Amino acid sequence: MRLTTSTLALLAAVPALAQDAPGGAPGDAPVSAVTLFEAGLAELTRDTGAASAVTLRVPLRDVDDVLKSLLLRGEGVTGGTITLDGPDPVADAFASLPFPPAAATDLGLLLRSVPGLRVRIADAAWPEGREGTLMGATEDCTAEGGCETTLTVLHDDGAIRRHVLAAGLDLTILDGEVTEALARGLAALRGAASGQVREVTVAIAGAPTDGALSYVVAAPAWKTAYRALTEAEGAVDLQAWAVVENATGEDWEDVALTLSSGSPRTLEADLYGRSWRLREAVEPAAPAMVEPVPAARAFDMTADLAAGAAMEAAPAPVAAPVAAQATAEEGAVDSRFSLAAPVDLAAGEMVSLPFLSESLDATHLSVWRSLGYPRTGNPDLVLEVTNALPVRLPAGIMTVSDATGGYVGDADFPLVAPGETRAVPYGTDREARVEERRTSTETLLSVRASGGVVRVSSEAIQETTYVVSAPGEAREVAIDHPLQEGWTTAVPAGPQGAERTDADGSRWLRLTVQAGAEDATVVVRDAYPMEQVIALGELDDSAILAWSGEAATDADRAYLDEAARLMQARSAAADALARAEGEAETLTRDQERVRRLLSTVQNPSAAYDRYLAQLLGLEDRIAEATAATQTARAAAAAAGDALTRHLEG
Fold first, then answer.
1. What average pLDDT does the structure give for the chain?
2. Environment class of residue 175 by beta-carbon count within 10 Å: exposed (0-12), middle (13-18) or buried (19+)?
3. What is the dihedral angle through the alpha carbons of 269, 271, 276, 280, rounded to the nearest 10 degrees?
């Protein structure tokens, strides 16, 4: 099955491309321009000139990209179509043929598969041949002689003869439909023999005079390797080299090369694979059938334009102007560097070539960056580079050399936006040493009380001490102290420093320390305010009195002292109530005991009189205890109310 679709899509890497020149003669459409992306893509541009069609040999893995985004443009180009075999061309080709794919390459199987063929058989006895109708073909195999195919033919003279397919026998198929089918099947097998490659035909509509074809392919990401020649002060000569690999499968000759530091979003789409849809059955009892969808009509842009659809062709590609090494251009999603000289690069080869050479503002520093815990070590040698160029500098490896060209160290160079300053560590300063110590304390600031709560304000203190020594010679060391959200940072004595913010949003206080014959010490104090709110009702009187001793004002102290006194009174009233209730419970138990004893003795008797007297006495005492309990309960309630009123006041 052939697939046909519209253009305006990108195309995958192709090892070869042929085009039809005017008049039908084949011509070349070599790669004229390549844009490489750090995201692992390559955009190739080919000049198609006045060609009306081109044929691409596309790796199977890239066919989806062909259908997704092949782009035609140029003077006189009004549209086009893309045509290629379907995902299973052999099965599609043989679906309508009267024999299986294997029969196209096996004569015996072909003859066994299609009985009734009109044939002509010629041999040494009948060199002019005899025509007839094939009745059948059989294959006989023996261990000694192998396999042979015998044909049974009804000849036009009425005789039925057997013929063994062997050397000296010529067989001609006289059935035109079968021979045409055989030719189509062989063509499909020939195409399938290419394996992972598909031929894609692009027909260019209109009257092109200066056409171009561009597409994007998966490609190895190009890499940046910087050379930094440091000067004595204030600048660095920075040269950027690009490591490029040609993995497109064809040579590049006089190619205009552009390097992009962007990472555009790329998506995959399964456009080449077949998509079957389930259809609802008419009868409920019938199972849902999967039917092949009808083949889509060829989208012929020329015909659509003739019907009234309007399309404006993109302008012909124009080579960007170039400067000494490369022209730099900043875009919305990337920075592009167009090399001045064309590039020759054979398929599968790599090249490293400079694309930028500039002198940039730079500061040489010895930097100690705190990691937030005590440690001792050497500061980093850092190059702080300011990008004064109008384009982003891509990330890459950087080799740093001194003013004489001597190797100093390597650095991981980050992406640097225009106007941005980034620190690039490239070595260790062995001439300086930093000891970082840290202590943590908590300071009580104030105790305030009102509304039934005590508010305790305190401050968490972290003090970091940096001791910088440089016994060899006087040195200036920059200390980056981390700034934490919500904390207040101060330097009690010495340089106050300046705040800095990294690209990732982290904030630092940079202090510059001079060290030489004597060690230099700087202390940084970080404070974090804290407040604790404690409900007084959850404390006992001793805890309240303890907070009273820390109270901020006389009013707060008086409030807490009164709360403690009222809490003591409430506790005393509660104790008195408990004693009264205990006394009443004891008397009630004694009453029950005497009543049981009274019921066990005879009346009248001395024992009965004695128990009766005890019972009457207990009843009087219970009445007194009940009254005392009620009084204690009222006192306890009054003490609790007084405390509540004070706390809420």
1. 82
2. middle
3. 70
**Cα torsion 554, 555, 559, 565: sign:** positive
3-state helix, strand, coil in the chain (%, to 5): 25, 45, 30
Exposure b/e, 458-478, CB count within 10 A at least 16 = b = beeebebebbbbbeeeebbbb
> DSSP alpha helices (H): ranges in 469-605?
541-548, 554-598
Report DSSP state, residue 344.
Answer: E
Q: In Å, how far are 55, 74, 201, 309, 405 from 301, measured between CA atoms?
A: 18, 15, 15, 9, 61
Cα separation, 394 vs 39, in Å, equals 12
DSSP letter at 393?
B
Distance CA 532, CA 564 (A): 20
Distance CA 37, CA 331 (A): 13
pLDDT band (50, 70, 90) for residue 25: very low
User: What pTM was computed for the model?
Assistant: 0.61
Contacts of 542 (CB under 8 A, 6+ apart): 564
Residue 43: which of 239, 334, 271, 270 has the closest Cα?
334
Identify any residues that bridge with 440 across adjacent strands, giving them in sequence order.
462
Residue 66's φ and ψ, nearest 5 degrees, are -60, -50
3-class DSSP assignment, residue 295: coil
| Position 436 pLDDT exceeds 70 | yes
pLDDT of 243 above 70: yes
| CA-wise closest residue to 506 among 370, 384, 396 | 370
Which residues, 6+ apart, have CB-to-CB distance to 33 below 8 Å?
44, 45, 255, 256, 257, 258, 317, 319
The DSSP call for residue 298 is: P
The neighbour count for residue 538, using CB atoms within 10 Å, is 8
Terminal alpha carbon distance of the chain: 92
Percent of the chain whose predicted confidence (pLDDT) is above 70: 86
Place of tokens 């690069």: 345
Q: Tokens at residue 479, please?
A: 């200390």
Burial (CB count within 10 angstroms: exposed 0-12, middle 13-18, buried 19+), residue 373? exposed
